[in-house]
Amino acid sequence: MQMSPKINLVGSESIVISHFGPKVIEFLHRFLYLINGEISLSLGFHSDAPAWILVPEIWPLLAEKINALGNFSHYRFDLLRQLISPTVLRQCPKLRLIQCQNLFPEATGAADHEHASLGQALSMWLHTARQDGHPKILRYRGVLGVTQKVEELKTNFVNASSPISYVISVEFGLFHGSPFDLTNKRTRERLVLRRHMYLHVNWNRLYTFWMLTRGPNERDEKQWAEWELEAADPFLWQTKKNAIFLHNKYGDKFRRRRELFSQL
Fold first, then answer.
1. E strand residue ranges, 115-253
2. Is residue 133 situated within a structural domain?
3. Residue 8 within a domain
4. How many structural domains are present in the chain?
5. What is the mean pLDDT of the chain?
6. What is the rounded CA–CA span in Å between residue 188 and residue 17?
7. 71, 196, 228, 247 from 223: Cα distances, Å
8. Which domain holds residue 216?
9. Overall pTM > 0.70
10. Residue 109: what pLDDT?
11. Second label for 58, Cα 20 to 30 Å away, from 85, 95, 221, 237?
């Protein structure tokens, strides 16, 4: 028996969708038409979830508005590249923040053609400048170390002939190296890696991680501190307005979590 769509409206700031069908697509059409701004999207489908069949129909409704992507794992990125396009990330013009799970840029060969690896495709997005000049933000978590990949980003920076801006945060135990502060005189940029500690007051928890920033030598330090906060806070992207959670089978769990975030 076909189940009716389950759509949980949490206030006026987010929705959690855990079942999919024609009525849900119709609802998204209407919902997104009313949104003039940007959206944060969390993908929670398993690789074998039936909902992936509908993704090609849903994605065009979302792509032009996506500002942040959460729960972005290896297999989810792979499926999006297969179902939508190998260049799916660069087809989201407003996308500026990605929360990655065991997926990190491969700076030695940035490319997003059909045969490029996932790391290369992610690197292509990271190294494609935004029109507004704001940095891309990537928050990495998982179990796979990234020491060698950070070294690749260093090499890429030293050899660069054009500027690009990004902020990357990495869980502390996933990088085994030393802080550094490099300068590229050709691009007038700095690449800085430092240990960072962030106290989440509402959760009474101290987070320790590495913060890697690439940007101009002369910058608005106050503005860059705000961007670094976005990379530091593991929950900040979920508290923004117009958050859409697509989580097959787990809608109630994420609805309760979102209600908790809205009270912080």
1. 136-141, 166-171, 180-184, 189-200, 205-216, 243-246
2. yes
3. no
4. 1
5. 83
6. 45
7. 26, 17, 9, 33
8. 105-241
9. yes
10. 82
11. 237
